[in-house]
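Our preliminary data section would be incomplete without showing what the modeling component actually yields. Below, a chain of 148 amino acids is followed by its predicted structure, encoded as C-alpha cells that our downstream tools consume directly.
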Amino acid sequence: MDTRFGFTIGIFLFYVTLLGFGSGYPSPKILPGFKKLAHGVSSGPVTLLDTKRVLIKNLRYDGAGPDAYFVVGKGGVPNLHGYKVQNEIGSSDVLKGYDGVDVELTLPGKLTFNDIDYLSIYCVAFEEDFGHVLIPSNLDLPEYSYDN
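Predicted structure:
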C-alpha cells in the first residue's frame, strides 16, 4: 500500500472526527435570528439546546404589544392555533420588553421541537406575528433532561 494514501486517509479521518461529521451523536442546532416584522423584534442566533429548550441570544422587543407571548405551533406562519410558552422566568404573563438579553425557554408539556414549525413573539388579541424563527424538520437533538 502506498503510504501517501494511508496518510491522506488519516488526515481525512482526523478532520471528520474534529468537526463532528458522522459522529452519530445528537447535537444542539444553531438557527438564524428572529425574522423582524414589528415592535422591534430581533435577535442573534437561536440555538435549539435539546428537544425542549431554546436559547435566544440578544433578544430585542419593545414590549408594546398588548397581548404578546412566546408562541410555538405548526404551519408555515405563526397563527392563533399555536401554544403559549412561558417566558424565561416561568411566567405566562404578557411579555415585557427585552433589550438585548439572552433568553432560555422550555416548550410546554410533551411538545418537542420535532412537533412544531415556528417559534414566534405573537400578539393574540390582534393575531399578529411580531417576529419568528422557523424550526426545521427531522432534527436530531439531544433529549431533554427533566433535571435541567
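Residues 65 and 123 are 6 Å apart (CA to CA). The chain is about 10% helix and 30% strand. Preliminary results of this kind motivate Aim 1 of the renewal.
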